[in-house]
Amino acid sequence: MTSADHLKNIPPWLFCLLALPSGVAGWGVGSLLIPYMLRKHGVAVDSIAAVLVIASLPNVWSFLTSPVNDLGFSRRTSVLLFSALIAFFGCAAIFCVDGSLAVMTVILFASRVIATLIGSAVGALMSTVEPSIRGRAAGWYQAGNIGVSAVMGGALIWLSDRVPLPLLALAAVAIIFVPSLVVLFIPETPLPRLAPKLLFTAFFHDVWLVLSARRTWLGLVFFLSPVGAGGLTHLISSVGPDYHASGDLVALITGAGGGVLMGIGCVLGGWVCDRVHRKTCYAVFGMFVAASAAYLWLAPTTAFTYAIGDAAYSFSTGLTFAAYTGLILEVLGRRHRGAATGYALLGSSGDVALLYMTWLDGVGYRYGGARGLMITETLLGGIGAIILLLIARHAMRCWPHLTDIPVLAAAKTATA
């Protein structure tokens, strides 16, 4: 395929809206609204945590379900179909909040499975955009996924205390499904229909090309590293008392405020990733994350330290998440039959890093309190970022064809 087959003249911010169906349903409803409502109904915190852990499992093995998007409907149809389905499950979760925890677990688990399907379908669409704007597409996507979704979750929590349950459910359905309609404005080149045997052969060949590529294994070094994994985001609200921060300050910094800062970081990070080597961006942004944790480690344990440190951590994590998604798209390249599965395979590696860093941060807190947590985050992230920067520089020398600056590469192609 020529460059004409890539999506052109598509505003990258459209991918911010396409991130909302899975982001709002999985994060805004599943991780913010439902735990809040369950707690109001008297459910113990440890029971809520158990529900959320089980419901989050599909994130790790999303590559097992993503072939549905490569072997079934078109990616645009998948986005619309699964967005409608996940809106239904979000509505069901709200109405079942005073019911059985087992039923709630099943609903949230199913919702996360569908969220991963939406994510891989959108990822496959992003992989077809011009290489010179993939960084911005990735940044806007992550801004919607973690920034806007958190703000929408906070808005739904606010509504839950003020409107009847049916109106709350209706608002959730609208916020989840309506943004998916923008996929109609994104053209998709239809693939030729194949007999089942040929279809599966083409699919497995495309996935094998992803798995066997040198750029994939180089990318996995970055994705599986502790650099910029964001483990502290899951624990930062729990260490507020260690810094003498009030409940209102914790809610502001870790809720809407943190979401906005992450979103801004994502958009800025995506813009930078189209102008600088993405592997270098990944490492440097990871250093910013480690520096934020170092500030929380070394500064006095005051509310001011907590506010500034967490704000810096949220912003720099947004930068890193944009580089992470942009690098996934760079590693994946242009795929025909295995784009969604390849995207999910690479994305799952980042979830592994997030899980083990959250666990290690918790171990650090167990043995050293808040400072132990921050030391863990600083040392693993900082040392890892230095190593990744050296790897990125080595890759630029040894494999320059794998490390073109996207905007410059596009300019070379245009003038060739």
List keywords for this structure.
single chain; 416 residues; mainly alpha; 16 helices; 73% helix; 0% strand; globular; disordered N terminus; disordered C terminus
Architecture overview:
This protein is mainly alpha-helical. It has a single domain, classed as Up-down Bundle (Growth Hormone, Chain: A). The chain is 73% helix and 0% strand.
Distance between the termini: 17 Å
Whole-number tally of structural domains: 1
Q: From the 3D coordinates, which CATH architecture would you assign?
A: Up-down Bundle
CATH superfamily: MFS general substrate transporter like domains
Low-confidence stretches: 1-6, 407-416
CATH topology title = Growth Hormone, Chain: A
Number of strands: 0
Global geometry:
globular
List the helices and strands and how they pair.
Elements: H1 14-18, H2 20-40, H3 45-56, H4 67-71, H5 75-95, H6 101-126, H7 134-160, H8 165-177, H9 196-212, H10 214-223, H11 247-254, H12 256-273, H13 278-298, H14 303-332, H15 339-398, H16 406-415
Helix pairs in contact: 2-3, 2-5, 2-6, 2-7, 2-8, 3-6, 5-6, 5-8, 6-15, 7-8, 7-12, 7-14, 10-14, 10-15, 11-12, 11-14, 12-14, 13-14, 13-15, 14-15
